[in-house]
UniProtKB/TrEMBL annotation, chains A, B:
Subcellular localization(s) per the UniProt record: Cytoplasm
CDD domains the UniProt entry points to: PRTases_typeI
Organism: Cytobacillus citreus
One of the record's GO molecular function terms: xanthine phosphoribosyltransferase activity
UniProt: 5-phospho-alpha-D-ribose 1-diphosphate binding residues: A128, N129, G130, Q131, A132
Binding site for xanthine: L20, N27, K156
Name of the top EC class for this enzyme: transferase
Protein purpose: Converts the preformed base xanthine, a product of nucleic acid breakdown, to xanthosine 5'-monophosphate (XMP), so it can be reused for RNA or DNA synthesis.
EC number: 2.4.2.22
Keywords annotated in UniProt: Cytoplasm, Glycosyltransferase, Purine salvage, Transferase
SUPFAM superfamilies, per database record: PRTase-like (SSF53271)
Protein name as catalogued: Xanthine phosphoribosyltransferase
Catalyzed reactions per annotation: XMP + diphosphate = xanthine + 5-phospho-alpha-D-ribose 1-diphosphate
Gene name of the encoded protein: xpt
Family named by the database record: Belongs to the purine/pyrimidine phosphoribosyltransferase family. Xpt subfamily.
Amino acid sequence: MELLINKIKEDGIVLSDSVLKVDSFLNHQIDPQLMYEIGREFASRFQSEGITKILTIESSGIAPSVMAGLQLQVPVIFARKRKSLTLINELYSSTVYSFTKQESNEISIAKKYLNENDRVLIIDDFLANGQAAIGLADIAKHAKAEIAGIGIVIEKGFQDGGKILREQGYRVESLARIGSLENGIVTFITDNVGETVK
Amino acid sequence: MELLINKIKEDGIVLSDSVLKVDSFLNHQIDPQLMYEIGREFASRFQSEGITKILTIESSGIAPSVMAGLQLQVPVIFARKRKSLTLINELYSSTVYSFTKQESNEISIAKKYLNENDRVLIIDDFLANGQAAIGLADIAKHAKAEIAGIGIVIEKGFQDGGKILREQGYRVESLARIGSLENGIVTFITDNVGETVK
């Protein structure tokens, strides 16, 4: 997605060979116009999939998801990172390990919002090691919902997440795929943008 | 805002005399179409205020804020509830006490995204005791930004937050104001919806 790639080129900050900071438009400060276009792009790529729900995780997944939901006309559910202890029997949960923060989070959603009749689009801001997406897929499986695909704003193509998810048979659509952050330069993988890599 | 009030009437669940659960469209599952209309309503009420930034707090403030930002064409900043310890000198912070969860959270934003030239619209999903809004206003003051107003999706008019903020001189616009949740029934304050109560 050219608009997004240009935004990353302009405003992304390479902190190390593995860390790209985009908190000027995605993770902390949010650019609503860009989110709208991102939502439109997700909607266009998944519009024939019969999506009934979008599933994401707080907090940075919410803005792109709600814009995709606006255009696909489906509700968004965001998984919370902490369990509500009073509701433990009414939740689907999974554990997500963050390599960046080096901590595990329990993520969960209320059972009543997802069931076997749902076709779910999982959306997240970043795909690195794939832990968050795998956790969300896990929750969808608990609910016996079908996973129609995974929409990612920025994929770090040099980490394993995309490969793992595609090998598991998921259709992964990443709007920007980064091949390398070496020497402080963002290099994009342009060949397969928008395609499912088998 | 009639659409919102009808949605609360239909889908809101009164858990006690002080707790209204709206996690089917606002706090957990999100209705993007409704969020779009909420954003439009905020934009229309504050459009003559010269807003340059919207300031909110993760996670439930993000969806209405990003829709308001879309229509006011300004960026949204969401305060995080946990400090990034490596960035401590680059953050504006404040402490927010949650009466519901009975815990204090440090909230913070990166200094570079707010300054004395900004006119800020603070948006949040709920206004009860006003702690979150006061914390966000505190952060805006640290940045010497001007606070143009406070937009609230649902105000619990029977709690003190709205009164405190209005007495401090803030323009508070609540799209639905609840007068009472007694006996399991949601009663709305209809007289002053959309008006600044002096």
